[in-house]
Structures are given as C-alpha cells and as structure tokens.
Specification:
Structural class: alpha+beta
Order of helices and strands: EEHHEEHEHEHEHEHHEEEH
Strand content: 15-25%
Number of helices: 9
Shape: globular
Oligomer: single chain
C-alpha cells in the first residue's frame, strides 16, 4: 500500500484508495471540516478551527480511505470528495484503543471473539453532491478490499443521524431496535451514562419503507449488507448528532453482496 497506483475500487470517474501522503490526509481533514463544522455545525477544538481541518489524535494511527473524482482538474488532494477512517484492532491495541469506546461499551463484545480481527470504521464523510448510492458502494468496495488484505473478520463503528433529539428519529431508531438489534455474542450497548432508549414506537406502528427512507445513505448501506445495531443511541453534542453502533461480521454479509463486492475487491486487493 501507499503507492498512487494502489487502487481499491473504481466506479465511473470515482476511485478509492488509501491516503499515501501527509498532504492527502490533511486534505481529507479539510473535507471533514467542510462537512462536519461548516455544514453540520460541529463544535471542534481550537486547533481544528484555526487549521480549517477536523483533527484528532486517532488520525496519526488510522488508515484513511479516500474517494477521488478524477474529472476534477488539479492534484490528488484537490480531487478528494469523500473519506473514511479505518482502525485495525492490532493498531488500536498498540495506541489509544478504539474511538468508539468514548460512546459504546465494546470491550465485552471484543472479548467474546478473541480469535477474530476487528476493524473500526469512522469519520465517514462525503461532500454533498457526491452523496449517492454509487459513492457509498465505492466506499464499500474499498472497505472490502482492505478487509480482505488484512484478514478482517468483523467491522464496527458509529453511524450518525443529524440532531441531538433521539425522539426526532423515533421511526428509524424504533425500526433498528425491533428489527436489527445485535444479540448473543455480538450484543453491544451504549455506555450506561450515555444510553438513550431506541424503543420509541411499538413494532406494529413502524412502517418499514418510511423508516428506511428516513435514514442517512451510509446507514442504509450498512443495513443492505446485513449489519446489526447495538442497543442504545448516544447523543454527540459536539458534532450535533445521534449515534448508533453498527456491527458487521463478515460472515453475516449476504452472499449477493459478497459476490458483488468480491468481484472487484479480489481484483483490487494485493
């Protein structure tokens, strides 16, 4: 990895690969700032505001999956239209742990699967005009190729909905609670002091089509792949979002998506 040619996925004029320079990581942080701070109103630390980049301690140890629009004239940094942050379990262990532990009690889930290798997905960010199913699929091509290369058994991470009032998302949260809750060895919950109930509507009152259509594209993408959702939503006041925990064991991904992504990912994985 780390070379300009190490493409992990391609759809039309869009490509995805890992950042291969400090300049590309900084450009990805600037895209994150554009979306999180300017568009969504996130309250970021002074360093991020002065730099115009969303920066935290995890950036230095994560891999950064980038989406490029190759029709944009300019350098690779200027072509970045989306980004995803990837943190492998062995890297997390050697550094500051997983980012998600600030919101969700994931330690017990990890301990139930000592033989499995986990990958945390985070800081998903796509510029407005690129928020299409095609871009989400490309990000998943990249994630899948990366997972194949590193022998990943399960992915997890926070998915966000806008706003800090869980009640405003009663329909999708209730749908997730009644239909997608992670159970058994995959069960995971919000940290007790941050827990917000997701069971806000009775199951019979939840219209599936309306619930799914009200979800952000990334969360829909997780569900299409067969993801499960942890119990309890967490309010992230700094980012102005309501977060849920997504758990996606590779073994749970439906065969049609394994075939769909595998055809490309096996070609792109080195």
């Amino acid at each position: 990895m780390g070379e300009e040619t190490a493409i992990l996925g391609r759809i039309g004029d869009l490509e995805t690969r890992l950042a291969c320079s400090a300049a590309e990581i900084e450009a990805a942080q600037a895209v994150r700032y554009e979306v999180f701070a300017k568009e969504m109103g996130a309250v970021l630390p002074p360093e991020s505001v002065s730099e115009g980049r969303d920066i935290d301690a995890f950036d230095a140890v994560c891999d950064h999956l980038l989406v490029f629009d190759r029709t944009i004239v300019g350098s690779s940094e200027e072509q970045i239209v989306g980004t995803y942050r990837l943190l492998r379990q062995e890297v997390a262990r050697a550094n500051n742990g997983f980012y998600s532990t600030s919101e969700f009690a994931i330690a017990e889930m990890l301990a139930r699967h000592p033989e499995k290798r986990f990958l945390e997905l985070g800081r998903s960010c796509v510029l407005p005009k690129y928020r299409t199913r095609r871009t989400v699929e490309l990000l998943w091509q990249g994630n899948w190729a990366y997972s194949l290369e590193h022998g990943i058994d399960a992915m997890f991470g926070c998915a966000s909905m806008p706003g800090v009032q869980p009640e405003a998302h009663a329909l999708p949260l209730s749908f997730l609670y009644h239909n997608c809750l992670a159970t058994g060895s995959w069960a995971v919950s919000a940290r007790p002091e941050l827990y917000n109930n997701m069971d806000l509507m009775p199951k019979e009152a939840v219209d599936t089509r309306s619930a799914i259509s009200s979800m952000p594209p990334l969360l829909k993408g997780y569900l299409r792949l067969g993801a499960m959702i942890g119990d309890g939503a967490v309010i992230d006041r700094a980012f102005g979002t309501t977060d849920v925990m997504v758990v996606l064991p590779i073994s749970k991904i439906s065969d049609r998506y394994l075939n769909y992504y595998g055809a490309d990912a096996s070609r792109f994985a080195s």
